[in-house]
Every structure is written in C-alpha cells, then in structure tokens.
Request: fold
Amino acid sequence: MSISPVRRREYEVRLPPLPELRLERELPLGQRLWQQGWLRKSLILLVLALIWELAARYQGNDLLLPGFLQTASAFVEGLGSGELPQKIAISLAVLLKGYVIGIGLAFVLTTLAVSTQFGRDLLGTLTSMFNPLPAIALLPLALLWFGLGENSLIFVLVHSVLWALTLNTYSGFLGVSDTLRMAGRNYGLKGLRFVLLILVPAALPSILAGLKIGWAFAWRTLIAAELVFGASSGKGGLGWYIFQNRNELYTDKVFAGLAAVILIGLLVENLVFASLERVTVKRWGMQR
Reply:
C-alpha cells in the first residue's frame, strides 16, 4: 500500500495594492560631487597651491621661494620650449630600462625561492645584505665600474627596484592558501607553470604593492643620481635640469622641475597602477 501526498488545489492570492510611497529625493548636487574621488583630490591640490602662493607672497623673495603662479609660468615655458619634455623623456627612458630589468630579476629570485630550499636561503641572505643599503650609495661604485654612461644609472635603478619587489612578491607567495596550492598540484602544475598560473594570480595584490614601491624608489633614486651623474657628464634628465637651474639661480625653473617629478608620479600612480588594479584585483574581488 503506497501513500501518495495529498494534492492541494492551486490558487492565486490577490495582494492589495501598496499605498503610495514617497520616493526619496535625489542627493543634492554638492553631495554627489563630493563623492567623486578625483574632485576631492583636485580640491586638495588647489588648497595646497593657494597656501604655497600665499606663503611665497608673505616671504617676498623669489630667489628663495617663487610663488605657484611664477612656477606654473616657468613650467609652461619649459614645455613650450621643448627643454622640459626632452629631459622627461631621457629620465623615463632610463627608468624604464632599470625597472624592467629589476622586475625580471625579482621574478627569477622569487621563483627560485618558492621552488628550492637553496633559493629561499639565497633570497633571505641577499635581502638581508642589500635591502638596507641605499641605492644612491652605490653610485660611486657604479661610476667606477661602468663609467659615465647610462649603465651606471641602470645599475642603481635595478638595486632600488629589486629588493622591494622581491620581498613583496615572496611575501605574497607565502600567503597563498594551501587549497589553491593543492588545486594546482592536482592539475599537475609544477615549476614555472605552477608559479605563473597559481601563485602569481593569488599573490597579485602583494605584487602590485611591490611594483608601486619599486617604482617610487626607482623614480626618486634616478632624480638623485642624475644630480651627480648629470653634473659629471654635462647631460641628463630631470635631475640635471634641476641641478643646472639651481646653479644659474633660476629657482622658478628648479620648482618647475620638481613639479614635473611630482606630476609624473601622480600620473603613474593614478593612471597606470590604479587602472591595473581596477581591471585585476578589484575586478576579481581581491581588493576593495
């Protein structure tokens, strides 16, 4: 004897209409604008420029502190004459070479460290020795080894990029969960394929942080090195531009060169790295 469930007759419940609801009014224009990050940052920059201009006028000595408007005029003049873009191009070309070489060496070291015990010992020893060493302190040695040329700058740039990126990347690799590691092993991934397909995507937030830190270290190291290298060889990029105008007492051009350094840093941070984070770790839900 089988017992079948009792079938209940289908029916439709007619719900009473909802009373009229008052929709919330749209946020005021001021609040909507304030939610835009680019607008808040622009406002901060405007406030800083205003403070700078007021301080310069209060100080009253253009040789010591030119105002914001005077610096902006020198900056526009440098762009118009083509001198400033030429110096920026020289600096960025050298920086890109050292940055790419540093990234390649960091990837080799971290891959070796996660693959073998010898690699871990090598990475730990090298980072303990060279990470505390300022890159600019190696410039005299680089000039002795490579002479007055681009190779000396590339040498110190690689040093400034390598250790920050290596430590962040290796720390990210160590933070990869055992679940992801076992999933990669189950698919038969080993060696370089395991690093590229499992460890790198999982550790991408730490890798991007290392790339940003390495970029900042390399950029300021390059400007500082060009102050010495440019003075020795009679040519160079933004650092030489700043040094030369300081010797000729064109303080407004010195500030224009510093402004170019700052603007390039802001552009790289907010366009390159922010876009890279938006299409990778933020899109994948790995970062807010």
About this structure: The chain is about 75% helix and 0% strand.
